[in-house]
Write a structure and sequence with these properties.
heterotetramer; A mainly alpha (804); B mainly alpha (560); C mainly alpha (167); D mainly alpha (117); B: 560 residues; mainly alpha; two-stranded antiparallel ribbon; 21 helices; 4 strands; 2% strand; globular; D: 117 residues; Helix Hairpins; elongated
């Protein structure tokens, strides 16, 4: 069924409208704005549910920038609905929870407005089907998470974290944009018309892939788009922003880690999977090489880092990266199990991770610390929380019969088959998957263990959380149980959850979709064995958790940490800037003029050389003796200026040059010029002398090596001018426009009493100035008038600073 | 009626003189000046309507023969979609900066010369955009420069005189070099009219074409100097810091773009007409653009890198913005470099359109940012990062404006700046069919520059707007000051002072420009359609020549 | 003396301008001549060498000469019969009116043709035949523009000279 | 009317003048920098006039007179305005020099640039 356009639009834009209204709402409702926001999310959730129940599938498109072929288009299918479901559903819970968590905190209007915009952006990412529309929402998630991570604006840790997430995710987004443009370019090669529409790209996946391969752009496009997904989904080595993002208020972390932001990356990988992965794709194509390896590496590295964490939110943050790695790796495998694993784990991860973050928020809020070493035995004070935490942690650990187990089992299956069919080194896939999962087991159990055992002495009084904070994680916990039950009972593909995951599977797989169902393993398949190994090894290692924790921390120093590179790059950039700029922009006119003039010389001579200009042959002096003599004196005058011992001597010799130029004008039959030059030269002389009167006798001794360098540049400039003059005087264009001016300047022999079609003056130069090119003169007298204003301003505005 | 072509220029010119004559009464003078600014916007809109609209059409070219002398003998003003586009965005920024000036510049300065100089700067800019004559272009450059010289050192002070000295000397050298190049072009081709020049170069039978490449290269350095491209960028940081905020907004927003416009107009419309074999060690071609493509690419790359790296480590908000300006002009030039060597006409059009869109967006965003920085300085007394901090809490509206400006330059959608970046990337990607290596290099440069942009704007934001309030902020904005509209003022109390009206007005200007950036992003279709029309006009040499010289013949009949 | 001290010392017109009787006399004769030449250059500019620019620089030169010989104060109070304006500066106000007016005149002379359907700055020539004394008499509208140029340049140059001179 | 014959002497003279001007622009003394600019602008003017041809009659015609074989009046008009503008900019540069000295107490480009020796 085609989705109802209004419903789709409402889903995406309702949160934005609500965000815009939030400041006003806040004035009326105060802290209860949380419920306004939650209600907004609930409406979206309801609409998404309605779309889903109606079996909506199809495109909704509005013109946006028709001249660029960009539209505001949305596509509703299983994957889109899954992400929209999670975003709006978790959104309801998070916003409700915020009502309790943010009690009494400043900046709530901004907080809820941004959070709603964040929700809207995520819904937009999920539903957008135009690459540009998608990118718009994609960057808006980065932007709103920037603002949310930096919510506590005066904390330097928040500032650091926000900038880090912005630098990594927005940069990644730009790389992705370039990747998109390569896809669009390829669509132009493969299809009659290039397109931004994801749907059209997916429908013509084979043709697009061929066009990309033919132009050698398949790998670049894949890598660029992959960079966008990897930065967003915190894949190694871009995972580093995610732990810092816990500086945000805990509800934001929960939202960001479970249902928004980071899910955008895996969403994109899933969305583009059928584009890059054909049904007959090779087992180890570019796609698998990139994403399976990236995902497994992230899964393992982040799980190890989670074990090294000392803070519960940090632990959960690394765990998020690790699970996203799992999803990416699943999508990476070119078999159906991979697609199933990815689709199912998106749902499972959202359910248990959101619950765990909310639990962490309760712990931090009520116990007053997030230090793992200080927390234990919380069960006594927080019984309900403990139950939720246990369920969610076991699901995260991949322990049957919880839902996390089933999606991980599918990953093992995918990895196993991939390894088996590739053979040899291909077996590294299942091995690494198990290796990483062991650490997942370890930190998950560790998290659950915080609620058990002896109560830590350092813990003060632990409050009970308010209902608003307890109900949302409880609901999530129930969701975990629900999915677990459905899977364990081995219900068929037509049950709601399985049908839903089946739709998602359809979206991320090339070819025809088939039904989805999982069931509890009843025989010892290789992948069931992998699960068993994971749990057994994990259980065996758990007693040594603290030693592992210390050992990993001891190893993770310096360049081994990606953070070391990030901080080094950012600080290095800053240091480079601080260090180099003073030597480039050194305040010395000499440096500036040298660069500028040298560049002019290079450009000019390069231009002449590139065009193959030949210097004209010498044809005699072409000049009369008087002119020659005058020019000679002028040059002597100029030389004298250069070596003048004092300012006065220099000004006087400069005047000699000026007067010689005047005489040159006379000899060149330019009487007007000569007159003007004479008078102006006199005026300049007077002003020079007046000003020099006030200046000290500083002449700056000449440094030999500098003078030599300057002389080289001066010679180069001189040579450029020499060539230019020679080349241009040798040219003789036919019919220069001056001819017309000379002919029409005077009074025509036959003329009416009034005419405008001739100059009407004998002095052609003046006629040009006041008639032919009076417009130039208009500009020139403006300049002259401004000179006067300039000097007035210079003298009268002194002592008046800009900020008074 | 073709008077619409000269109307913006005349409005600005008359306003400049009127502010000179009415200087005895500040109120009248301000009113005249603002009225002139509005009139200029209206004239620009009229021009835009006559030349570019309806959107999606190829547009028209209207020629105005100043003094009634036919082209190529007299001076012509030519309004085609390219010129109208430039005048249009100049009018937007200049009205914003003017309104800001009235609230910002001290009364004595306004009375003395500020308004006159400001409008003369607009005159110079407008003349440069509209003229069809290369010597006339020189004249308007001089008008623009003379006013900018003095506006840069409007407030005397050691930093200002020093900055102005470098600025003035470099530009005086530039003027001499420009005169040399124009003289050389006249000597080789015998004409000053751009259309005639293009025609004579295309014809090639009556003129020696070979020297033109060298001469146009000399001229290119002048435009690069105006645009502040590496290695002619030296004057930029100090001059931008020295000038009063609204002047910097104009310098960065509009005056710089004159250099960019001149490059588009002269190199793509005029010099490209010359059929001239060009051979360089790595490139060869049969157009001057084969030479300028690599030149522009090198300059753009160097500007992006130097400006970007330079901006990251600055200690002062104004200085950071100035370096950003160098970097952003690199972005503006980059698509032109691709367009210069692109084989496909579509990519060439796209490249020029990308340049124009980026220039437009930069004009909007950078003027907004400089104005915001000016308000910070006026409210707090300094723009040094170590004195700032916490402004997001203390002045939320101003902070919002600044954030939007920074985001549009970073390229966050749906702000207009995003589309600038998109088109730059698209141009580079489009070059894949021509030279994959070139496209790859252009993409790499653009991406590196984009990452640098994020790095320095997040730094500016973190140090000035987030964090604990710095000493200067704590001293001058002890409470929360919300500007024109109070949003969520749940804490602290607004400070009231005598400056409040002026500051509120300034913040309003910043906010209006920020909203314009949002508006042009969401309504990008109109902007893109006009930029495309402008790009087509810029690349249509024959159309330009026909419009200028053809209508001249028609007019000669009327007059004769 | 350092720069700052130099700058702060009171300006002594009388002491600085001990000019001889001869130079004063010569100037009294020469200056009117220069001015006369300047005006005639302006008037004849359309047909013979000359014009607004040249006339203006020459006029300005004449004034500068008087400045140099007699000192600023003398020119301003005795020759031009002006009193120094409020902020103790030269009669720059008057010069500003001069160049402001000159610019206005130039622009107005350019705008006038627009009213008659011609382009901006279109110049026309009227010919009157059989005028007494002159056989033919020619009035070029360009003259008004030239006059504007003249006034602008004179005003601007004198402003510059006066500002630099008083410093 | 226009050039046509390569002007070797003028090319050499202008080359030397530009070189001398450039050398001055690179000096430490601000006044010399201004001189350098002045020389370069003057030379550019001379160059333009040269473009108009050095042989011919002054571009003055009588009523209905012929405009044959006059030197190029266009470049002369261009140069005339260039001279006046040049005067303006020179005056500005000088007053700026004076103000620089007032503000900084030096006219040494090195000290101005913060590189006092």
């Amino acid at each position: 069924m085609q989705p109802t356009p209004e419903v789709v639009l409402a889903v995406v834009f309702l949160p934005f409208v609500a965000a815009a209204l939030t400041p006003a709402v806040f004035r009326v409702l105060g802290e209860r704005t949380a419920y306004f926001a939650a209600a907004t999310a609930l409406v979206c959730f309801g609409l998404v549910t309605q779309l889903s129940l109606a079996g909506a599938h199809g495109t909704v498109s509005y013109e946006w920038i028709p001249s660029l072929g960009v539209s505001l288009a949305f596509y509703v299918d299983g994957l889109a609905l899954l992400i929209a479901f999670l975003a709006s559903g978790v959104g309801v819970l998070i916003l409700t929870y915020s009502g309790g968590y943010m009690h009494g905190e400043p900046g709530q209007a901004k907080y809820y407005a941004t959070l709603l915009a964040f929700l809207g952006s995520m819904l937009g990412v999920a539903l957008a089907s135009d690459l540009i529309s998608l990118f718009v929402f994609w960057e808006l998630t980065s932007l709103s998470s920037f603002l949310l991570i930096g919510h506590y604006t005066s904390e330097s840790a928040s500032k650091y974290a926000a900038r880090k997430s912005m630098l990594i995710t927005v940069s990644g987004g730009l790389f992705m944009l370039v990747g998109f443009l390569l896809l669009v370019w390829a669509s132009g090669q493969a299809l009659p018309e290039s397109t931004y529409s994801l749907v059209v790209l997916l429908e013509n996946a084979d043709a697009i892939r061929e066009a990309l391969t033919a132009s050698g752009l398949l790998v670049p496009a894949l890598v660029l788009v992959g960079l966008g997904a990897a930065t967003k989904s915190a894949q190694v080595p871009f995972h580093i922003w995610l732990p810092n993002a816990m500086e945000a208020p805990t509800p934001v972390s929960a939202f960001l880690h479970s249902a928004t932001m980071v899910k955008a990356g895996v969403y994109l990988v899933g969305r583009l999977r059928p584009l890059f992965l054909s049904e007959e794709a090779p087992l180890l194509g570019e796609w698998t090489l990139l994403f399976a390896i990236l995902g497994l590496a992230t899964m393992t590295v982040a799980a190890i880092l989670a074990v090294s964490s000392t803070d519960i939110k940090e632990l959960l943050a690394y765990s998020t990266a690790s699970h996203l790695g799992l999803i990416v790796a699943s999508f990476g495998f070119a078999n159906e199990y991979g697609a199933e694993a990815g689709a199912f784990h998106i749902l499972n991860h959202a359910s248990f991770k959101a619950a765990l973050f909310l639990v962490a928020g309760i712990v931090a809020h009520e116990a007053g610390t997030r230090q793992i070493s200080k927390l234990s035995g919380l069960r006594k004070h927080l019984p309900v929380t403990a139950a939720i935490a246990t369920v969610a942690s076991l699901s995260m650990a991949g322990i049957p019969p919880f839902n996390g187990f089933y999606s991980k089992e599918l990953l093992f299956e995918a990895a196993w088959y991939a390894g088996k069919e590739i053979g040899g080194l291909g077996y590294l896939f299942p091995v690494v998957a198990v290796f990483g999962s062991v650490f997942t087991f370890l930190y998950s159990v560790k998290f659950a263990s915080l609620f058990f055992g002896e109560e830590n002495d350092n813990l003060g009084h632990v409050h009970s959380p308010p209902a608003t904070m307890l109900v949302p994680p409880a609901i999530l916990g129930l969701l975990v149980l629900g999915i677990s039950a459905s899977a364990t009972l081995g219900l068929g593909p037509e049950t709601p959850i399985n049908a839903f995951v089946g739709h998602v599977y359809g979206s991320v797989s090339p070819g025809d979709p088939h039904g989805f169902s999982v069931h509890f393993p009843t025989e010892l398949s290789p992948y069931a064995a992998m699960s068993a190994v994971t749990i057994l090894v994990g259980a065996a290692l758990f007693p040594f958790y603290d030693r592992l924790h210390d050992g990993i921390n001891a190893l993770l120093r310096g360049p081994v940490r990606a953070n070391w590179w990030y901080d080094g790059a950012v600080e290095g950039l800053s240091a480079t800037s601080v260090r180099t700029i003073p030597s480039v922009q050194n305040g010395l006119l000499r440096t500036y003029a040298t660069w500028a003039l040298a560049s002019v010389t290079v450009l000019a001579l390069g231009g002449y050389a590139a065009a193959g200009v030949s210097l004209p042959a010498f044809e005699g002096f072409a000049i009369t003796l008087p002119i020659f003599l005058v020019l000679l004196v002028a040059v002597v005058g100029a030389v004298a200026v250069d070596i003048a011992p004092s300012h006065v001597a220099g000004v006087l010799t400069l005047s000699i040059l000026g007067f010689m130029v005047a005489i040159f004008y006379i000899l060149a039959d330019a009487p007007d010029l000569a007159l003007t030059q004479l008078v102006v030269e006199t005026l300049v002389l007077v002003i020079f002398l007046l000003v020099l009167n006030r200046l000290p006798a500083f002449y700056g001794e000449v440094n030999r090596s500098r003078a030599a360098r300057d002389a080289v540049l001066a010679l180069a400039v001189g040579a450029t001018v020499f060539v230019t003059v020679l080349v241009t005087t040798a040219a003789s264009p036919a019919e220069p426009i001056a001819g017309f001016l000379a002919e029409n300047a005077g009074v025509p022999a036959e003329h009416p009493p009034f005419f405008t079609n001739a100059g009407g003056g004998g002095n052609i130069v003046n006629v040009i100035l006041v008639d032919f090119r009076a417009f130039d003169t208009m500009g020139e007298i403006s300049v002259v008038a401004m000179t006067a204003l300039a000097i007035l301003t210079l003298i009268r505005m002194r002592e008046r600073g800009e900020t008074q | 009626m073709s008077t619409v072509v000269i109307a913006p220029l005349l409005v600005a010119l008359v306003t400049a003189i009127a502010t000179l004559v009415t200087r005895t009464n500040l109120t009248v003078q301000r009113a005249v000046s603002l009225l002139g600014g509005v009139g200029y916007l209206a004239a620009a809109a009229l021009l835009f309507r006559s030349v570019v609209l309806p959107l999606g059409s190829a547009g028209r070219t209207i020629v105005y023969q100043v003094s009634g002398w036919q082209a190529p003998f007299g001076i012509v003003l030519v309004a085609d979609p390219l010129s109208a586009f430039m005048v249009g965005f100049a009018s937007l920024v200049s009205l914003g900066a003017l309104a800001y000036s009235v609230l910002y510049v001290d009364a004595y300065g306004q009375k003395l010369s500020y308004h006159t100089l400001y409008h003369f700067m607009v005159v110079g800019v407008t003349g440069s955009f509209l003229t069809g004559d290369i010597f006339n272009l020189f004249v308007w450059f001089e008008v623009m420069l003379m006013s900018s010289y003095i506006l840069v050192l409007f407030y005397s002070g050691p930093e200002h005189t020093r900055a102005a000295l470098n600025y003035v000397v470099l530009n005086l050298l530039g003027s001499a070099v420009m005169l040399l190049a124009i003289g050389g072009l006249y000597a080789t081709t015998g004409t000053l009219n751009m259309a005639d020049l293009a025609q004579r170069l295309a014809d090639g039978s009556n003129v020696a074409v070979t020297p033109v490449l060298g001469l146009s290269a000399v001229l290119f350095s002048v435009f690069a100097l105006k645009a502040g491209l590496v290695p002619f960028q030296f004057w930029v940081p100090a001059a931008y810091r020295a000038a009063p905020a609204p002047v910097t907004a104009m310098l960065a927003g509009v005056v710089k773009k004159v250099g960019v416009y001149a490059i588009v107009r002269l190199y793509f419309t005029v010099f490209a007409a010359a059929s001239l074999p060009v051979s360089l060690p790595f490139v060869s071609g049969d157009s001057v653009l084969a030479f300028f493509g690599p030149v522009m690419f090198l300059m753009a790359t160097a500007s992006i890198v130097l400006g970007g790296v330079g901006a990251v480590g600055r200690t002062d908000l104004d200085e950071l913005l100035a370096y950003s300006s160098i970097s952003q002009v690199g972005f503006i030039l980059l698509p032109l470099a691709v367009a210069a060597t692109a084989e496909s006409a579509a990519v060439r059009t796209l490249g020029v359109a990308a340049t124009l869109v980026y220039a437009f967006n930069h004009a909007l965003a950078k003027s907004l940012l400089f104005l915001a920085s000016g308000t910070v300085q006026e409210a707090v007394g300094t723009a040094r990062f170590d004195q700032l901090g916490g402004l997001a809490r203390r002045a939320p509206i101003l902070a919002t404006g600044f954030l939007l400006g920074a985001l549009t330059l970073i390229g966050v959608p749906p702000l207009s700046g995003f589309f600038g970046k998109l088109l730059v990337f698209q141009t580079a990607a489009g070059a894949f069919s021509g030279s994959a290596a070139g496209a790859g290099a252009a993409l790499a440069v653009a991406l590196a520059g984009a990452v640098l942009t994020i790095a320095y704007y997040t730094r500016a934001w973190n140090d000035a707007f987030w964090g604990a309030p710095g000493p200067a902020v704590e001293a001058s904005l002890p409470g929360r000051w919300s500007g024109p509209v109070e949003i969520g003022a749940e804490e602290g109390e607004g400070t009231t002072g005598s400056d409040d009206f002026a500051l509120t007005g300034q913040v309003t200007v910043v906010l209006v420009l920020a909203l314009a950036a949002v508006g042009f992003g969401i309504g990008f279709d109109a902007l893109y359609a006009s930029a495309t029309a402008a790009a087509r006009a810029a690349l249509d040499t024959q159309g330009y020549v026909d419009a200028v010289l053809g209508s001249a013949a028609a007019l000669a009949g009327v007059v004769g | 003396m350092s720069g700052r001290e130099l700058d702060n010392r009171p300006y002594d017109y009388e002491g600085d301008r001990r000019t001889t009787v001869i130079s004063r006399t010569v100037t009294r004769i020469v200056v009117p001549l220069i001015l006369l030449t300047a005006v005639s250059l302006l008037l004849q500019g359309h047909n013979l060498p000359g014009g607004g620019f040249i006339g203006a620089v020459l006029t300005a030169a004449a004034f500068v000469l008087i400045y140099v010989i007699f000192g600023l104060e003398y020119v301003q109070t005795d020759v031009l019969r002006m009193s120094p304006d409020g902020d103790g500066h030269s009669p720059v106000g008057a010069y500003r009116w001069l160049f402001g007016g000159g610019l206005a005149l130039a622009v107005l002379s350019g705008l006038t043709p627009i009213l008659f359907g011609y382009e901006f700055l279109t110049q026309g020539v009227w010919f009157f035949k059989h005028v007494p004394l002159y056989e033919e008499f020619e009035v070029a509208s360009a003259f008004f523009f030239d006059l504007g140029v003249y006034a602008t340049v004179v005003g601007a140059l004198l402003t510059v000279a006066a500002e630099v001179g008083t410093e | 009317m226009m050039g046509g014959q390569p002007q070797f002497v003028l090319a050499a003279v202008l080359g030397v003048l530009f070189a001398l001007g450039t050398y001055l622009v690179l000096r430490r003394d601000v006044v010399r920098v201004v001189w350098g600019i002045t020389i370069i602008s003057q030379s550019a003017n001379v160059y333009l006039v040269t473009m108009g041809g050095l042989s011919g009659f002054a571009p003055i015609t009588g009523h209905g007179g012929s405009a044959e074989s006059v030197t190029d009046p266009l470049v002369q008009a261009l140069v005339l305005t260039a001279i006046v503008i040049g005067f303006g900019t020179t005056a500005l540069a000088l007053v700026l020099t004076y103000r620089v000295y007032e503000e900084h107490g030096t006219i040494d480009m090195y000290e101005l640039g913060g590189h006092g020796e």
